[in-house]
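User: Hey, quick favor. My workstation is busy. Could you predict this chain's structure for me?
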Amino acid sequence: MSQHEPTPGHEPVPEHEPVPEDRHEHGHEELDLGLREDRSPGRRRNRRKRRGPWGCLVILVIVIALIGGVAYAGVKGLDWVRGQFSSEAEDYPGPGQGEVVVEVSQGDGTAAIGRSLKAADVVKSVTAFTDAASQRADEVAKIQPGFYSMKKQMKATDAVALLVDPANADANAVVIPEGFRTDQVVARLAKTTGIKKAEFEKALEDADGLGLPAYAEGEAEGYLFPAKYSFAPDDTALDMLAAMVKRYKTVAEEVPVSGASEAGLDEHDFITMASIIEKEVNRPEDMPAVAEVIFNRLDGTCVEQGIPKGLLQMDSTVHFLEGGGAGSVYTSAEARESDSPYNTYRQAGLPPGPIASPGQAAMEAILEPTDKGYCFFVAVDLDTGETRFARTGAEHTANTQLLQEWCRENSGRCG
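Assistant: No problem, here it is.
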């Protein structure tokens, strides 16, 4: 903060009687301040003698005030400059005391983090933090956004060590994987945050509070975007779920989901299809081919290969109506006979809504499907996610045998 010098006042100039002509020499007028010998009559001389000392005193006071003000401003200004450029930054000795939560926002640089820490009294100066951070620049560059529990009045090097420790970042984060159903999201949030599941379930009923898009039709399934989140200590269940919907909207604009019409879909069907793609394969590079299979089955391209027009026959949708499938890669004959609208072995077209939260790659695959005439696919290695695609039933049968061999070699893995 800068200091302002006091502005000196203006002393009223004393009145003077007309100046005699003999005071003008060489065209210059002498200024009469009552400080020289007075050659005027006695009455005027006596009057000046009374005023002279006071005039000197006033001027002396003003001069002293000016000197004092300049000196004060100079000292304060020097202190400020030292604070900004001192080579020996002020630092706390540590180890610190109490507890304070500090947020590191997305995009924060070292100086921004330092300012947040100083404002919270974690470090004594920004310079102390940036100096300490410069010694671990590679690690500091990887500091994750989020909320960190720290002590007040820490030594700057200790503050840096806490922030770069991955364990501290993970302790303040919640990771929602691609393909999680809403009930799985709720379970993970409740376990991580300590907030009761009932509060999340209640929040899911507040479509407006969640900020769901109109085409979601009030249902959060599919719109809680899978990502890594860091929540504030005072965030509510609604705050957390709303943050996931907000992230979905951001990604939806990037894809963009508004391009659904180009694929012959509305936005809700677009996310429904993306969720099926997400659940069917693990590797992003396989997703465009799965998108092609779905389109080909919907439009009847695969009828000649024994797939009735419109029937997707996707195991992932049957697993959804079973509550997730309990890890099995197969579906039961009973489930495939269900009248549920999610049973795509019996019900033509896409199911009524998403079956999980798709990631960005699954969404983008719909807009850029392959064009190879694929009608079938099957995962042949559950560890690597390797998936084989086929145009004909015969090719698909051969690929399915590869899966069966893998399952025999990995007993208990296929359910």
